Each structure stands twice: as C-alpha cells, then as structure tokens.
C-alpha cells in the first residue's frame, strides 16, 4: 500500500525534472540542415535518438540555446579549412588562370561540397567554376546567415548590475531607492553637495555634442562646440527641481549619475564615467580599454560614451567569437541585445620562397596555424582603437546614420587613426601597433592622400555601388571627423599636407 | 606589285582601325565632376562621385574589383590650392610622396615629365604592400600600385592617382595615359 504511493510520489517528483532536462538538452534538430548535422558528426558530436546532441569532450548534452553558437563556430572553422585547401591548390598551380583539369576539378569538388558555408561575397568569387545549370541548384542552398540566430553569451566576469536595463528607466550606478521615478522631461538634476558639475539631465531638448567638462585630455574633443555654456544651460530650473523633494530620485553622493538612459547627447564628467564603469558588466581588461578611450580619443569620445552608457553592450575579448574578423566584431540583434567582441591577435605565416620570407598570410587564432607561424597579440592601445571604431559603428546604428556604409567606415577609421595618433605622440613612437594596423597608421600620418585612396578603394571592393551614397546624418558625422582630422594635422605640423 | 599588296592591306585595315577607335571612344567619355574642377577622358563604366575629406575636395572614379574581390581600381583627382592650410609646393610634395620606406616595403620610381593637356606633369609610380582584405581573415599580402601625376596649374596643382593591385595595373595604364592626354583644368 505504501510502496505504490511512494512510487507515485517519486514519479511525480521526477517527471518535472525529466521534462526540464529534456527541455535543456533537447536540441532543435528539426530546424537543422543536413550539412549542419554532418558537421556535428564530423566533429564527433553524438546525436541521440531523442534529438539531443552530446558534446564529445564533456559527454553531456549541449543546451539548446548554445547549439546555434556551436554550429556557427564549427562552420567558421570548416570554412577556414576549406579556404586553406583551396589556397593550397592555387599555390601549387601555375596560377588561377592556368589550372590543370585535375586542379580545377579538385577546386570544383571542394566548392560544391562546402557551398553552404560560403557567404554571398565568397560565392560570387567562385561562381566561375560552375556552369549555369549547376549554379541554379547551388543558389538554392541558403546562405549561412539565414540560419539559427546566435544566442547571447554572458560575460563570465560580469559584475551584477544594480538595476535591469530598460530604455526609459532610471539607471543608477549606486542603488537608488526610488529608481524608476525620474521622468525624461523634468530636469531632475543631481542636487548633490559636491559642487562639481551639474550636467543638465536634459533629455527632451537634444543638446548638440559638447566636449567633456574638466577634461584633462590633450585635444579638444568635439568639433561642433567647445566647452560652451550649453553645459550650463538648464541649471537654473534644475536647481528649482532639486528643491522639490518628491520627484528627486537621485540622493546618493555621486554627482552626475545618469538618472535616465537616453540617447540624447549630454556632457559626462570623468567622475560619472568612472562610477558607471565601477558597476558596469565588464571585466578589468575591457574597463582598461574604455578608460583609455575616455582619456585619449580626440574625436567622437562624447558620442561613444553616451552610447555606451545607454546601450551597455556586451564587450568581450575573445578571438574565437570574432570568427574571421581581424580586429573586432559587432553583433546587434536589437538595441537591447548588442555584443562587441575584440580579437586578441592573429597568426602570421610567411610562405617562404627559396631563402626569403615571401607572401605573408594572416590567419585567425582559432585556426590550426601552419608550421613556422608567428602568433601576434594586439596591444591594449591597439585594441582600444578597434573598440573605439566599433563603438562608432554602433553609434551609427543607434542614431540611424548607417544607411551609408562608406560614411560609417570613414568616420570609424578616422576616430581610430586620430586615437592612435594621440597615443603615438604621447608615447613618442607607434610600437604599440602591429602589422597592417601599423602600416595603415603610418600611411595615414605620412602619406595622407595615398592613405585616403587606399581606404576608399578597399572599402569600395566590399560596398560596391553604396560607396557614393551619403545620407545627411552620415554626412554630418563625417564632416565632424574631417574637421577633427584637419585640426589635428594643423596642430601636428603646419605644413602637414603631404607629410 | 608589292605596293599594290600594301595598299590592299592598308585598305582592309582601315575599317578595323576605325572600328577600334570607335570602340575605345565608346569606352571612355569626357568627364567633368559637379564641382567643374577639371575635365578629362575617363572610362565610361566607372562609378564617379565627389567628396570632401580632411585634405580637400576630391573627385573619384571607381573601377572594377581585382580578381580576389578585395580591392577596387580607382582614379582620384585632387586640387591642391596654395591657400589651403598645410600647403606644400609641388616639388617638395612630389619628393615627400616618393620617399621610400623599407619597413612598409614601399618603393617609388623616378619622376618622368609628360605632357598633360597643355601642362607638363610630373609622373611617377609607387608600390606598397598591404594585407587584403584588410579587416577580415584569412588575408594575404598584396602589392598596391599607384600611378601618380602632379600637374601644376597657377599657384596650385592637381594630384591625380590611379590605384590598383599590381597584377592589374597594366590593364588600366592606357586609361591613365588617356586621362593625362585629355586633362584640362577648369576655372583656374
């Protein structure tokens, strides 16, 4: 009598657990393509009859929310492997225009078997290996991007955020009792005793970009205005608001804590930014990069800091997640779901020709580097520059000036080059830059006309007809970057046109 | 007899030559940017636009991609005015541009003088290695080749560049020469 009831209780207890396990472990196999299943099998993952995927290293099922990322990682590696195989055939041949029948057929076989791994650009490059009929069937294979979305990965060292992120909700670096009260329109300024800066928490009127108050940085930041009375604009009503007890949310000592997360540009003091960083969900390395940007970026500093404090994107240093991006990668599924990944370095392989180092090939750290490859790790300053460029690209998406990819890249590269210039001048050398980034910076510094031509021609290869398109918003940001660059070149060397 | 054969050959070749000239004429056109900075013969199919960058105004024409799809051939024409901040006079600007750099594997050729429209241009070439594609992996080293012509005009000068990857620069050499031959400064 007792036994059935005990068994019954046990069943009732176990069933939810089992359901939960199934929910965790069961992968959405039905949504996977045959090539993806094949990829899993090739990498020794076991697919169970119930649909779960077993990791060969841990022997545990892969959680369903991690499966898309796993697949993208495997696809990236496989794609690299395939490209290296193709490169090997081409290197052994007399040239792509003089392939033998066997070489050409090998290329075709490899391309055909792995067509699903290639994006549009790569497919365009290899279309000439196939006939029209073959291309008709190959074009039916979906592009890699059309597959499962990448899950959000949490930073392992993230510090807990005091309040959950929400667009119109008060976000305090220090916990505030009545946090969500602050409205966008009323200027609930910080009444705090420390006399310091009282930045108007103005959300309604968009303030033009203004340089940071009390900024120790050597170079004036925004080209639009210097430290002008715009900073002082609303303090009178703000003070009045301060006198009212009820709507005042910001009690704590930190002076200009940003009570409202908003995209409107406002002045942010160093103290406020430090307070933000203290509780921000970034590890110490990322915080060091952000501090470097805040201290030294001569252009777009205010813009990117405002964006950072608004969007709080996930920022990590992870070469594997960067995939095939040499320096950084931005993924923005929505304004609430943004991740920036920075590459830590690359492999450099010199293909020897007789006794000389011939052509250099750069490979990702996740690749199996050929023998004799050299691992090159990026310095903190170089990574900070890449992060600055990526934050400006993020700015273009948040503020809606990304319809012209040329404008975005132009402004991002200008911000990066100007940042490196400041760092190099302070250090007295550019040894913190490696490889192509060093070449690119020196070209910018010493041969600016040539740099500009090289940049435009390499961007044009990627963006095609979109090169000539420039919307007004993009144009104004580019104009700011042009102004900043002109000013810095004039400051550096009066006759700096060609030197 | 021989002269008759020669004449016959010449008569046969004439229509072919005319056709070739007509074809090449169809491939280029007289290009004048919206700012009316200059005019010259440029390839008809190349995409053109003007922009303002930190160094001044520049007219650009974008040609085809290289085979790897990592770099696009392109013309750029700048007007360097003596009143611009940081102005460097022609001869010094050419010397600075031709400076070699071993660390960057950058080299230049000697300067030649060539007629460009009604002026005399200083023409030289520059090669430098770059990684292409520049921001994605894997990337390979490639040599970028530039044909440069500096054409004085009044107190300033035009700076004309044709950039491409080295494996293709000879394909566009005739476009560069045609541009120089037909170059006319406007409004200077």
How does this structure look, described?
The complex is a heterodimer of chains A (499) and B (188). By secondary structure, chain A is mostly helical. Among the domains of chain A are: 24-146, no CATH class; 179-279, no CATH class. Chain A has 16 helices and 8 strands. Chain A has helices at 2-25, 34-42, 67-92, 101-113, 120-126, 132-138, 235-243, 270-279, 284-296, 301-311, 319-322, 380-398, 405-427, 435-446, 448-463, 472-492; strands at 46-47, 53-54, 314-317, 328-334, 337-342, 345-353, 356-364, 374-377. Chain A has a 3-stranded mixed sheet. Chain A has a 3-stranded antiparallel sheet with strand order 7-6-8, with no helix packed on it. The radius of gyration of chain A is 27 Å and the shape is globular. Chain A starts with a helix and ends in a 7-residue tail after the last helix. Chain B has 188 residues and is an alpha+beta fold. Chain B has one domain (29-185): Mog1/PsbP, alpha/beta/alpha sandwich (Protein Transport Mog1p, Chain A), CATH 3.40.1000. Chain B contains 3 helices and 11 strands. Chain B has helices spanning 2-27, 90-97, 173-181, and strands at 28-31, 38-43, 47-53, 56-65, 72-80, 106-108, 112-116, 119-132, 139-153, 156-165, 184-185. In chain B, the strands form 2 sheets. In chain B, strands 3, 4, 5, 6, 7, 8, 9 and 10 form an 8-stranded antiparallel sheet that branches. In chain B, strands 1-2-11 form a 3-stranded antiparallel sheet. The radius of gyration of chain B is 19 Å and the shape is globular. The model of chain B is unreliable at 16-25 (pLDDT under 50). Classes of the chains: A mainly alpha (499), B alpha+beta (188). Chains A and B meet through helix 3, helix 5, strand 7, helix 14 and helix 15 of A and strand 3, strand 4, strand 5, helix 2 and strand 8 of B.
């Amino acid at each position: 009598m007792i036994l059935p009831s005990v068994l019954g209780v046990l069943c009732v207890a176990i069933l939810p657990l089992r359901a939960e396990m199934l929910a965790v472990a069961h992968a959405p196999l039905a949504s996977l393509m045959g090539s993806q299943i094949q990829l899993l099998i090739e990498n020794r993952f076991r697919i169970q009859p119930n649909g779960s995927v077993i990791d060969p290293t841990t022997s545990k099922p892969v959680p369903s929310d991690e499966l898309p990322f796993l697949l993208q990682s495997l696809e990236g590696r496989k794609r690299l492997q395939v490209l290296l195989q193709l490169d090997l055939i081409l290197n052994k041949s007399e040239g792509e225009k003089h392939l033998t029948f066997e070489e050409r057929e090998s290329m075709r076989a490899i391309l055909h078997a792995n067509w699903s791994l290639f994006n549009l650009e790569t497919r365009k490059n290899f279309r000439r290996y196939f006939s029209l009929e073959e291309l008709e069937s190959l074009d039916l294979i979906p592009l890699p991007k059309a597959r499962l979305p990448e899950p959000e990965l949490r930073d392992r060292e993230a510090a807990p955020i005091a309040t959950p992120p929400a667009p119109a909700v008060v976000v305090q670096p220090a916990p505030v009792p009545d946090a969500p009260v602050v409205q966008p329109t009323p200027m609930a300024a910080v009444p705090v005793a420390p006399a310091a800066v009282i930045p108007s928490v103005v959300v309604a009127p968009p303030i033009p970009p203004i340089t940071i108050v009390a900024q120790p940085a050597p170079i004036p930041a925004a080209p639009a205005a210097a430290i002008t009375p715009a900073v002082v604009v609303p303090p009178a009503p703000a003070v009045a608001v301060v006198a009212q007890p009820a709507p005042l949310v910001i009690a704590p000592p930190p002076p200009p804590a940003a009570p409202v997360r908003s995209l409107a540009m406002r002045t942010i003091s160093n103290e406020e930014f430090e307070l933000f960083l203290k509780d921000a969900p970034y590890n110490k390395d990322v915080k060091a990069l952000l501090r470097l940007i805040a201290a030294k970026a001569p252009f777009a500093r205010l813009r990117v800091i405002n964006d950072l404090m608004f969007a709080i994107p996930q920022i990590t240093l992870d070469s594997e997640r960067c995939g095939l991006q040499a320096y950084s990668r931005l993924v923005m599924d929505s304004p609430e779901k943004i991740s920036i990944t920075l590459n830590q370095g690359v492999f450099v392989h010199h293909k020897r020709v007789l006794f000389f180092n011939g052509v250099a090939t750069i490979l990702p750290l996740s690749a199996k580097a050929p023998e004799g490859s050299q691992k090159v790790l990026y310095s903190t300053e170089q990574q900070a520059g890449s992060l600055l460029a990526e934050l400006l690209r993020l700015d273009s998406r948040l503020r809606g000036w990304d319809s012209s990819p040329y404008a975005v890249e132009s402004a991002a590269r200008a911000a990066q080059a100007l940042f490196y210039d400041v760092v190099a001048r302070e250090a007295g050398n550019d040894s913190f830059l490696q490889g192509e980034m060093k070449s690119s910076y020196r070209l910018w510094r010493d041969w600016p006309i040539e740099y500009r031509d090289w940049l435009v021609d390499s961007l044009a290869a990627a963006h095609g007809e979109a090169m000539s398109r420039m919307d007004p918003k993009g144009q104004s940001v580019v104009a700011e970057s042009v102004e900043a660059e002109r000013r810095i070149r004039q400051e550096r060397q009066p006759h700096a046109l060609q030197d | 007899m021989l002269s008759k054969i020669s004449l016959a050959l010449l008569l046969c070749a004439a229509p072919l030559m005319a056709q070739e000239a007509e074809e090449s004429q169809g491939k280029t056109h007289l290009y004048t940017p919206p700012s009316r900075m200059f005019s010259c013969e440029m390839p008809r199919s190349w995409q053109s636009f003007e922009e303002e960058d930190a160094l001044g105004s520049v007219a650009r024409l974008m040609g085809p991609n290289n085979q790897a799809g990592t770099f696009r051939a392109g013309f750029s024409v700048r007007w360097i005015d003596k009143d611009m901040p940081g102005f460097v006079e022609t001869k010094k600007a050419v010397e600075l541009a031709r400076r070699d750099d071993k660390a960057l594997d950058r080299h230049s050729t000697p300067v030649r003088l060539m007629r460009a429209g009604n002026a005399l241009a200083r023409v030289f070439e520059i090669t430098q290695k770059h990684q292409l594609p520049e921001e994605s992996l894997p990337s390979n080293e490639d040599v970028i080749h530039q044909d440069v012509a500096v054409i004085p005009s009044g107190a300033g000068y035009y700076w004309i560049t044709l950039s491409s990857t080295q494996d293709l620069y000879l394909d566009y050499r005739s476009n560069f020469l045609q541009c120089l031959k037909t170059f006319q400064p406007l409004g200077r």
